UniProtKB/TrEMBL annotation:
Keyword entries, A-Z: Signal
Signal peptide: 1-23
Taxon lineage: Bacteria, Pseudomonadati, Pseudomonadota, Alphaproteobacteria, Caulobacterales
Protein known as: DUF3016 domain-containing protein
Organism this protein belongs to: Brevundimonas alba
């Protein structure tokens, strides 16, 4: 029994030492474009900041799963953002809006660049919007914007950086 008590910590240390070093994950920075900054007062600062954070998180998760773009710096600019339902700020500014029945075509436009670990700079551009109100699915305020983030993240993980 004493031999087992000695071998268990030793095996743990050896397993950690033998694990290959992981590459540095990609650094992701999201900023707001000038056109979107003009819309912040209408959409609400909190909602827009949460969407910028959400974009960074979705891209970070997709790249960590795929292992793509290790050591790269990804600078994304959220240039346009449209909600599917009124934001808290819009509901406060326009009391006649119905938070459940008021729907609109939503989505997002993202631009930016990727600086790979070897110094190569690659452009990034992606946008996605619902085509019509019949395409609006789900009940989230930012349903289509989130769909745009997911699709961009999948493309980045697959090595496709520019679309449309």
């Amino acid at each position: 029994m004493r031999k087992l008590a000695f071998l268990a910590p030793l095996a743990t240390v050896l397993a950690v030492v033998a694990t290959p070093a992981l590459a540095d994950p990609a650094s992701i920075n999201v900023t707001l474009g000038p056109d979107l900054q003009d819309k912040v007062e209408d959409l609400g600062q909190r909602d827009v900041n949460e969407q910028a954070d959400r974009l960074a998180e979705v891209v970070r998760r997709a790249l960590s799963r795929s292992g793509g773009l290790d050591g790269a710096r990804i600078d994304l600019v959220l240039t346009d953002l449209k909600p599917n339902r009124p934001t808290f700020q819009q509901l406060a500014d326009r009391p006649g809006l119905d938070g459940h029945r008021s729907i609109s075509i939503g989505g997002a436009t993202i631009e930016g660049s990727i600086t790979t670990a070897d110094g190569q700079v690659l452009p990034v551009r992606y946008d996605w919007y619902s085509n019509n109100l019949a395409d609006v699915r789900g009940y989230g305020v930012w349903q289509d914007a989130d769909r745009a983030y997911q699709r961009l993240a999948t493309r980045l993980a697959e090595g496709r950086y520019v679309s449309r």
